[in-house]
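User: Here's a protein and a ligand (heme C). What would the complex look like?
Assistant: Let me lay out the input and then the predicted complex.
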Amino acid sequence: MNMKLVFSLLFAASLSAVTGLAPAQAPPAPSGATAAIHDTMAQRMQACVMCHGKEGRATQAGYFPRIAGKPEGYLFNQLKNFREGRRRNQAMNHLTQHMSDDFLRDIARYFSALDLPYPPASAHGLSARQQRTAEQLVFKGAPERQLPACASCHGSRMAGRSPAMPGLLTLPADYLIAQLGAWRTGLRAASVPDCMADVAKRLTHEEVSVVARWLSAQSLPTGTKPEVASAQPLPIRCGSGNE
Ligand code: HEC
Ligand code: HEC
């Protein structure tokens, strides 16, 4: 991908965020009503789609995470995390640098409302023993190591939980491994108490790889929504995930 093009689009997107104007490359609109239609969120978000896939729907391959259909609070928190340096990625840090909270919330609402099909289930290539390890971690955890089941926070179907707990299925395995690694080394952080840092640090290298490959290979029916927040307390307190 041509990085110069990406950055000029990103610049146009951040400029329009600050000024409320349509990106510079938008075709001139003939009348007021058409102008409003031209300046839709979909058009402003063209720069995102280049990396995150059609309408924010990335596949299991590669590194870019899907953003469509994730809980609004989760997306908003991540955009803020990039803006404030709790997560590091050159493009994302640059892009969010001058965006206001209000605009970040609009972006989060837009992508969260998209209801697009998930990629189909794929072969995980795990041995029977590795598959059992992954399913045990996801649905039961390892209580003897104070490691709660992933599903106790990420939702019983691992499709996320409102308002701010993300679903994990179908994300690229390389992306999942990198995120867990970033928490272990302190390169990614969430609001304190950062429960996900505790979880990531309790996993072994082998478990990170096995669970990531298992999560990535699953699919979800179109239209699956994050679970509604329940009164059930989380197994460890989380600074993000509830707000
Ligand atoms: C040049 C490629 C690129 C562009 C353009 C881009 N992103 Fe990203 N984005 C990434 C990468 C790579 C990551 C994962 C970074 C990491 O490792 O933490 C990411 C992560 C994210 C995340 C966190 C996802 C999650 O599951 O935690 C959100 C939300 C996001 N981007 C939104 C956007 C939006 C909105 C736009 C457009 C305004 C955009 N991105 C444009 C590359 C890009
Ligand atoms: C105590 C609750 C809790 C448990 C248990 C938990 N998580 Fe999380 N997880 C979170 C929260 C909260 C976030 C969002 C953090 C943020 O806002 O950055 C998260 C985010 C993630 C992300 C980032 C997703 C993305 O799109 O970037 C990954 C990967 C992840 N968790 C993997 C796991 C795995 C694997 C397990 C089980 C071994 C697990 N989590 C168990 C609370 C939990």
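Summary: The chain has a mean pLDDT of 86.
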